[in-house]
Amino acid sequence: MRRATAVLGALALVLATASVFAQAKPSFAGKWVIVPPADAAAGGGRGGGGRGGFGQEMTIEQTDKTLTITRTMRGEAMPTVYNIGGDTKVMMGGRGGQTETVVKTAWVGSDLVMTSTMANGERKQVLSIKDGNLLVTTTQPGREGGPQTTTATYKKG
């Protein structure tokens, strides 16, 4: 009887520990509007401009398997559906025009990491929630050769 109790106790401990590690993923769903950097409000910047983010505003829909980000460009809604835990082919604009890129999207803890490989290197965007805001931290090759990291902050709009 003692042995059965000890085994059940150990099993309960393992299950409790597993549930702590299997934390619920945050929801990024909703309409988001960029928060201009403090230096932009003082006249020292361009008002955020969506640098490193997804533009001035966006709407996100989220399921267990997909993340749909809809941006408005030139008055037209432009949705992109990303496969969470898989690859998504997207068209990205650049100085040389539109190019097809594969974006790998996966959870890393409570962050959603979107990684794409381009001709000049790797671009990584990390979506996270902090204090009710959506942070989009982008690391990509800089003009000087080293990586450049920017963070765009969005609030629910």
Summarize the structure.
The chain is of the alpha+beta class.
Kindly describe this structure.
- By secondary structure, this protein is of the alpha+beta class.
- It has one domain (28-156): Calycin beta-barrel core domain (Lipocalin), CATH 2.40.128.
- Helices cover 15% and strands 52% of the residues.
- It is built from two helices and ten strands; from the N terminus they run H-E-H-E-E-E-E-E-E-E-E-E.
- It has helices spanning 2-21, 38-41, and strands at residues 30-34, 57-62, 66-73, 76-83, 86-92, 99-108, 111-118, 121-130, 133-141, 147-156.
- A ten-stranded antiparallel beta sheet has the order 4-3-2-1-10-9-8-7-6-5, with no helix packed on it.
- Strand 6 and strand 7 form a beta hairpin.
- The longest helix is centred in the N-terminal third of the chain and has 20 residues, at 2-21.
- The chain is globular and about 35 Å long.
Task: Compile the SSE list and pairings.
Elements: H1 2-21, E1 30-34, H2 38-41, E2 57-62, E3 66-73, E4 76-83, E5 86-92, E6 99-108, E7 111-118, E8 121-130, E9 133-141, E10 147-156
Antiparallel strand pairs: 1-2, 1-10, 2-3, 3-4, 5-6, 6-7, 7-8, 8-9, 9-10
Strand content: over 45%
> Uncertain segments of ≥5 residues (pLDDT<50)?
3-21, 42-50
CATH H-tier superfamily: Calycin beta-barrel core domain
Strand order of the largest sheet: 4-3-2-1-10-9-8-7-6-5
Q: Structural class of the secondary elements?
A: alpha+beta
Identify the CATH architecture.
Beta Barrel
Query: Secondary-structure element sequence?
Result: HEHEEEEEEEEE
Total strands: the figure is 10
Report the end-to-end length measured between terminal Cα atoms. Answer: 59 Å
Sheet with most strands: 10 strands, antiparallel
Radius of gyration: 20 Å
Helix content: 10-25%
Average pLDDT score: 80
Shape, per Cα inertia axes:
globular
Enter the CATH topology name.
Lipocalin
SS summary, helix count: 2
**Name of the top-level CATH class:** Mainly Beta
Number of domains as seen in the coordinates: 1
